[in-house]
Design the sequence.
């Protein structure tokens, strides 16, 4: 018999969904700016992209402050413990209804693979996107900082697009993993309500 455990706090759920929505809008408008399709129009896409980017920065400032004042940042400290078990579970165990090797609690919300994925997001993907994004925004000031001697707009655009595709892959993988709970909608429901249903029989060993 499963038990209900509060996992995700109210602000945590808010910033998670707000961030997801903003990132989706950034991807949609960004790929139009890149020339992948024409729906919004170039000028409108640029305006939306820039506005949403600043909105995401504002959200991250509050989220970073919240994580450090509540010690929630510890949830993202990477670990290799049980990584192999998680890989085996996602490759095979999930298809034969094997017990999940990781049990969520309020103190341990992310399994080892999730922690490594978030580490890659914060150390590789995000810095690439934001460094090139700022270079885009302040292109008119490149000469003042001497950047025009080392960079071209084409190089910045290329790496910004690479970062965007990496973010898209991360988002798709994230959406897939949402469906790997006790039921297809279990993790989605937990991120909406904060409550996760845990099976005591699958207690972590």
Sequence:
């Amino acid at each position: 018999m499963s038990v209900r455990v509060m996992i995700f706090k109210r602000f945590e759920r808010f910033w998670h969904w707000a961030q997801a929505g903003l990132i989706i809008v950034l991807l949609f408008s960004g790929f139009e700016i890149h020339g992948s399709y024409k729906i919004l129009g170039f000028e409108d896409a640029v305006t939306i992209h820039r506005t949403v980017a600043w909105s995401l920065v504002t959200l991250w400032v509050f989220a970073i402050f919240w994580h450090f004042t509540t010690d929630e940042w510890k949830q993202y400290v990477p670990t290799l413990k049980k990584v192999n078990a998680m890989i085996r579970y996602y490759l095979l165990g999930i298809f034969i209804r094997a017990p999940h090797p990781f049990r969520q609690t309020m103190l341990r919300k992310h399994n080892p693979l999730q922690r490594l994925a978030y580490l890659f997001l914060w150390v590789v993907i995000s810095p690439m996107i934001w460094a090139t994004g700022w270079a885009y925004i302040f292109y008119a000031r490149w000469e003042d900082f001497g950047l025009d001697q080392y960079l071209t707009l084409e190089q910045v655009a290329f790496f910004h697009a690479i970062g965007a595709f990496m973010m898209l892959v991360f988002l798709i993988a994230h959406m897939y993993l949402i469906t790997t709970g006790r039921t297809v909608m279990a993790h989605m429901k937990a991120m909406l309500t904060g409550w996760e249903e845990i099976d005591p029989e699958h207690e972590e060993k």
In short: The domain at 3-198 is CATH 1.20.950.20 (Fumarate Reductase Cytochrome B subunit). The longest helix spans residues 42-69. DSSP finds seven helices and two strands in the chain. The mean pLDDT is 89.
